[in-house]
Design a protein that fits this description.
The protein is of the alpha+beta class and 398 residues long. It has 3 domains: 6-103, no CATH class; 139-214; 254-389, Orthogonal Bundle (hpI Integrase, Chain A). It contains 13 helices and 10 strands. It has helices at residues 23-27, 55-63, 88-103, 139-150, 156-170, 180-192, 196-214, 254-266, 274-283, 287-292, 333-344, 362-369, 383-389, and strands at 6-10, 13-17, 41-45, 48-52, 71-77, 298-299, 304-307, 309-312, 316-319, 327-330. 25% of the residues are buried.
Length: 398
């Protein structure tokens, strides 16, 4: 055994105490209350008992080039095959003794384990090592690590929501620890101002903790955020802009479609959106997919339209659609003839270009449909809102 080598864990710092030099310093340091994920635990591997050491301790030793296994087999089965007696109390007693030394104000832990077992773990531990244990991840650190794992390959719109909307909800708790106290505090704050973003952010944080546990990035044994989103309201439901009630329908009738397109065609200021919304009605594609579409994406010979990118005002052009890399849409004769005529009158590769920029402004196209949010007077109602107010159809978003 290496005499004089004793380590103690205080506030995530491993303090070296050698030959009594730093004992007085150690006595003056009051250890904070320990958490369950910093405990030495008794586990089993195929029925054989073993010790599991706190990951921060193992990481600190590894950072100094010392191989210290997180698991140490105790060489006995949990249940004696001959007598049927349990060896777990014996193992728990060993773990408790090690834990007591880790928590002791005089730093009594022996990293060689000779003090607790009959066999040394290693003869190569430098008695002059001073180690700083890496503290457990905060909410912010965990979330950023999770995004680096989760977001690659996702659509630009999805990345934007995660990196902005959900991150903004979590930011007030950025420096908090991953524990039950933080989870309760976060739930309480979200209960005071419920909305779907808050609820989703809490659900995703629980998912992030599960991921971090499986990757051994944190050493907790129970996810404090699991189930915390239950009971949280998603905020106000989307209501009809005109009636104030939930939308009853999911699609316009054919007569309503013709009414809407005719209204666009007759409006001097919004006529420019006629072709755009006609295409959306004929294909059912998303707004961003239609804005990003080019003539290169339409194969008149094979009779297909390829949707493989999307456009958002805030993120620009991105590859892939919201839910998949690409998809094909069949061209029927009516759609093909109309697009052929549209192509002949176009001198740009983007099918529905913007007036001043390459791509159409998504926000402007939506205002033409609904209303100008900066001016809610009657004459600034969007095409569909105006028709709904006249009682000619039930309003639905674009």
């Amino acid at each position: 055994m290496l005499e004089g080598l004793i380590f103690g864990v205080y506030d995530s710092i491993l303090i070296e105490v050698s030959d009594g030099v730093n004992r007085e310093m150690a006595k003056n340091i009051k250890p904070k209350s320990t958490r369950t994920f910093n405990k030495v635990q008794v586990k089993t591997d195929k029925g054989v008992l073993r010790l599991q050491f706190p990951k921060p301790l193992v990481d600190a030793l590894a950072a100094k080039g010392v191989k210290f296994s997180r698991f140490k087999s105790l060489g006995k089965r949990e249940i004696d095959p001959d007598t049927g007696e349990s060896h777990r109390p014996w193992a728990e007693a060993i773990a408790s003794r090690i834990q007591a030394d880790l928590d002791h104000p005089d730093s009594l832990f022996d990293p060689t384990l000779v003090k607790y077992l009959d066999v040394k773990v290693s003869d190569n531990i430098d008695p002059t090592l001073t180690l700083a244990i890496t503290p457990d991840l905060t909410v912010g650190q965990l979330w950023e690590n999770f995004l680096q794992y989760h977001l690659p390959g996702k659509a630009a719109s999805t990345k934007y929501v995660y990196e902005n909307d959900y991150s903004k909800k979590l930011r007030p708790f950025w420096n908090e620890q991953i524990d039950r106290e933080t989870a309760s505090k976060m739930r309480g704050a979200f209960l005071d101002s419920p909305n779907s973003t808050s609820k989703k952010a809490l659900q995703l944080l629980a998912k992030a903790v599960d991921w971090a546990v499986s990757e051994e990035k944190i050493s907790i044994t129970k996810n404090p955020f699991k189930g915390m989103s239950e009971g949280l309201k998603s905020g106000k439901k989307r209501l009809n802009k005109v009636t104030g009630f939930s939308n009853k329908f999911v699609a316009f009738t054919q007569n309503e479609v013709e009414l809407i397109l005719s209204a666009f065609l007759q409006d001097d200021k919004r006529r420019k959106y006629y072709d755009f919304y006609k295409f959306k009605f004929l294909t059912g594609c998303r707004t961003g997919e239609a804005i990003a579409l080019t003539w290169d994406d339409i194969n008149f010979t094979q009779g297909v339209i390829l949707f493989n990118k999307t456009y958002l005002d805030r993120t620009g052009l991105s590859e892939g659609t919201k839910t998949e890399d690409s998809r094909e849409f069949p061209l029927n004769s009516k759609l093909a003839d109309w697009l052929c005529a549209l192509k002949q009158s176009s001198n740009k590769n983007v099918i529905f270009p913007g007036e001043r920029k390459k791509y159409m402004c998504r926000e402007a196209s939506i205002k033409a449909w609904s209303s100008d949010i900066k001016n809610i007077s009657q004459d600034r109602d969007g095409i569909v809102v105006a028709l709904a107010k006249q009682g000619k159809l039930e309003y639905l978003p674009p």
